[in-house]
Write a structure and sequence with these properties.
This protein has 3 domains: 192 residues, Methylglyoxal synthase-like domain (Rossmann fold, 3-Layer(aba) Sandwich); 114 residues, Cytidine Deaminase, domain 2 (3-Layer(aba) Sandwich); 120 residues, Cytidine Deaminase, domain 2, CATH 3.40.140. Helix content is 38%, strand content 19%. The protein has 19 helices and 23 strands.
Amino acid sequence: MERKIRSALISVYHKEGLEAIVGKLASLDIKIFSTGGTYDFITTLGFAADTVESITGFPSIFGGRVKTLHPSIFGGILFQRDQEEDMQQASQYKIPPIDLVIVDLYPFEETAAQTDEESEIIEKIDIGGISLIRAAAKNYRDVLIVSSSSQYPELLRLLDEKSGSTNLEDRRHFAGLAFDVTSHYDTAIYKYFSGDAPSVFKQSIRGSYPLRYGENPHQNGVFYGDLHQVFTQLYGKEISYNNLGDLEAGIGLIGEFNETTFAILKHNNACGCASRPVLRDAWNEALAGDPVSAFGGVLVTNTIVDEETALEINRLFFEIILAPGYKKSALETLKSKKNRIILQLLTSGFPVRQFRSILNGVIEQEKDLKTEQAEDLQPVTDRRPTEMEMADLLFANKIVKHTRSNAIVLAKNRQLLASGAGQTSRVDALKQAIAKAGENHFDLNGAVLASDAFFPFADSVEIAHRAGVSAIIQPGGSVRDQDSIDYCRKHGLAMVFTGIRHFKH
């Protein structure tokens, strides 16, 4: 159903990009109605426009809050051109047809992010604009709605190609975009009013990124959001569903460290991690933690990758490397082999609330933002950790926080020696870690142990002691904590409690 655009209503908060649109409408001899600042902007450019007041007979009132809320405006948008009764009423009440509506919304989301002043935020709740968008979108059979300046290029192309005409498919497409704008806007307002305890789960995430596949090749997958805000892809194939899980885990882990650190991840868990003054040394020590598991892994670091480190990394088959930057020569080295994804990290600041689908609903929680410092630890044994043990305990605790539960981490000299991850018992996690350390020929004498939750019995402490562990960090909180404390006191181990559990399921 072809419709010729003969008139347009333009009322926008943001004027960027509008000049080209108005110029094109003028060249097509399309009559323009406009409001307030938009009218001034259009006429200052030298284009003709009529005020909305010339239709309604009412001025803009209440500080501009009421301009377009009038039957003559909404009637011009909503009356159906193929309904005889509607056409008669439009003629009877002298309501001019409006064939194109170009409206955007007050910047509520941006204002709420920039200030806590409620009156200023509330003032940015758009009433007239969102009503116009909904009305035009509802009557897409007759009216074309443009609801954001991001749609201007598409509108210009349409006006050029069809000389001011549109078909039903065009108008329905823009109507869909309009309802995306209004639903996103209303979701932001709801989240502002509901605060930290909403009674209804609402999210609106802009943008989509098709993935190679889901968790397995027979599952499709899509990422909703803007990956370009997180990293820049410098090289390689498309990112997969599983890649994103590893990247989130890696970014979370590496963000815990201020000193130069390298980590290697596999299935969301660190299989290697080390902190050293020199990046190449950090890489070599991280790789030594588990060179077998590192094959095909995801590499993350918080330091710009230099040529020396890149030459060492280049010996390994890996899937992804993520760093804040790369020296030019290092990047060329890493690009020398195919089937690698090279990413430059742009930000590690993400929303503080997390959610995932489960059963027939969604679970949501606050992100685990707690990272224990030395002053947070409660020594519970007569022997206090040495300075080196304390550094290793804090190092290990950062890693265990980002390891799947039940989790045990063994570390020494700020190097991950081994971990037990995702086990059904804490004893099994510990035994797995000790066995893995043995496979890689690590001496556990003087090593430290981090546990993501308390020890229900002293058995784990005894097993760790026999393996050579000298200091332990754990949350505490078991009804039998004293058993573990007594064992450590009797055998000269140092133990500290954090009071914080870091389960990660």
